[in-house]
Design goal:
4-stranded mixed sheet, binds magnesium ion, alpha/beta, globular, binds guanosine-5'-diphosphate, binds 6-O-phosphoryl inosine monophosphate, 13 helices
Length: about 425
């Protein structure tokens, strides 16, 4: 196994940052291939906590090549702030490569994101308001600006003028403030100059690395249930976080992707709107939210919390080609008397084992649960499967049975060291 894709297998925030950072200790290259600064990946090691947004989680290791690939949408200003923030905290030796085909996010994308949410009223998606949807829409509409053009003085001026001409008309039609070309150009040409040294053809770089046998880790953002195609549309993000999207979004051959590690919490969370069949309210939800510190990394919103949903996990396994699971935040479940796992849904009297395609149906399904006894022991210091309380072992075995996947890694705390690998990755 020389390449490994790390995907979120629920609704995001499963602990992808932690898993990527952990596995990056053995990797040569770490790649972010979709999304942008809507992601918030938390990493904890040596008493230091970092929250990464667009920058890949291999940035802490000077030997790792970090790639921001063509499928990403990158906010130049925010990305540079993130980088400067890391530098201020002592991360000064790093290798970073940004695809010349990645698209950039500009302030008008953020304004449009906020405005569409307002227009949608009660049906708002609950986006991060980082302009992600409008930036991907411009890409599809062929009025986006790509990194390679952004960092070239001779193209940026004309392209920005031309694009702003269209975007300002759109903003005007929507009754929103317009942007002044000179102001925007003056500010963003400074960022362009600073970013230029990182920009290259990352597809070429990745092919070279894979062909020479480097260990390449693809760090997914968001989660399969937020996938534009396979998620709970329209309550999704605007890219595909699945394993299948990696070759396209990184510019590599599909045959290079053989292993997909689905990262999942030992329960479920969701930020933003949309159906969530196993959602909990009341004391148990609060218990899990507080123990798991379930507040958004990007927006600080309290995350919605629920029981583990193996219908959703199984769906993620199928559409994303997951062949290993990483079970995260397992420690959070200590102290719960009875644990429930959803194994099927009841839709108007019919038992179903997959995700209905419409919001109308999905918001009506009733989760069917199996119940398992919980455990009281603190497991944050556990270092092997054998150390776990018997009921915790049974919980893992049940997940494996219901998802037809192997739990290859589990995590008992936010720190890098609180990770137990049951199968060795990157042997
Ligand atoms: P990501 O977006 O998938 O990278 O996940 P986030 O970083 O947004 O959210 C995961 C949260 O869980 C972060 O606060 C992590 O520090 C924390 N975390 C990760 N693994 C564990 C774990 O095993 N136990 C506990 N208690 N926290 C964890
Ligand atoms: P990481 O990588 C959790 C959610 C938003 C909203 C929907 C659309 O940290 O797991 P967007 O701003 O993308 O248009 O919002 O998707 N969302 C996430 N939820 N984790 C994320 O990233 C998310 N990125 C987007 O809350 O419901
Ligand atoms: Mg997150």
């Amino acid at each position: 196994m020389k390449t490994l894709v790390v995907v979120g297998s629920q609704w995001g925030d499963e602990g992808k940052g932690k898993v990527t950072d952990y596995l990056a200790q053995k990797a040569d290259v770490v790649v972010r291939s979709q999304g942008g600064n809507n992601a918030g990946h938390t990493i904890l090691f040596g008493g230091n906590k970092f929250a990464l947004r667009s920058i890949p989680s291999g940035i802490f290791n000077p030997n790792i090549k970090n790639v921001m690939a063509n499928g990403m949408v990158i906010h130049p200003k925010q990305m540079l702030e993130e980088l400067h923030g890391l530098e201020a905290r002592g991360i000064r030796e790093y290798q970073l490569f940004i695809s010349n085909r990645a698209h950039i996010v500009l302030p008008y994308h953020e304004a449009l994101d906020g405005a569409f949410e307002t227009f949608k009223g009660d049906h708002k998606i609950g986006t991060t308001k980082r302009g992600i949807g409008p930036a991907y829409a411009d890409k599809a509409n062929r009025i986006g600006i790509r990194m390679g053009d952004f960092v070239e003085e001779h193209t940026l001026k004309e392209l920005l003028k031309e694009t702003l001409n269209i975007k300002n008309r759109e903003l005007q039609m929507l009754g929103l403030p317009q942007y002044d070309f000179h102001e925007l150009y003056t500010e963003y040409s400074v960022y362009a100059k600073e970013l230029k040294k990182f920009v290259c053809d990352t597809s070429l770089l990745l092919e070279e690395e894979i062909e020479k046998g480097s260990k390449v880790l693809f760090e997914g953002a968001q989660g399969v249930m937020l996938c534009l195609d396979h998620g709970t549309y329209p309550y999704v993000t605007s890219s595909s976080p699945t394993g299948a999207s990696v070759p396209l979004n990184a510019g590599i051959a599909p045959r290079y992707i053989t292993d997909v590690l689905g990262v999942c919490k030992a329960y479920t969370t969701r930020v933003g709107e949309g159906p969530f069949p196993t959602e909990l309210n009341g004391d148990l939800a609060n218990y899990i939210r507080e123990r798991g510190h379930e507040y958004g990394t990007v927006t600080q919103r309290p995350r919605r919390v629920g029981y583990l949903d193996c219908v959703a996990l199984n769906y993620a396994r199928r559409v994303s080609g997951i062949n290993h699971l990483a079970l995260m935040l397992f420690d959070v479940l200590s102290g719960i008397k009875t644990l429930k796992i959803c194994y099927a849904y009841d839709l108007d009297g019919e038992i179903i084992y997959t995700i209905p395609s419409t919001t109308y149906d999905y918001s009506r399904v009733k989760p069917l649960y199996i119940e398992l006894p919980g455990w009281d022991e603190d497991i944050t210091s556990v270092t092997s499967f054998e150390d776990l309380p018997e009921n915790a072992k049974a919980y893992i075995r049940k997940i494996e049975e219901l998802t037809k996947s192997k739990v290859s890694l589990f995590s008992v705390g936010p720190d890098r060291t609180q990770t137990i690998e049951l199968e060795e990755f990157f042997k």
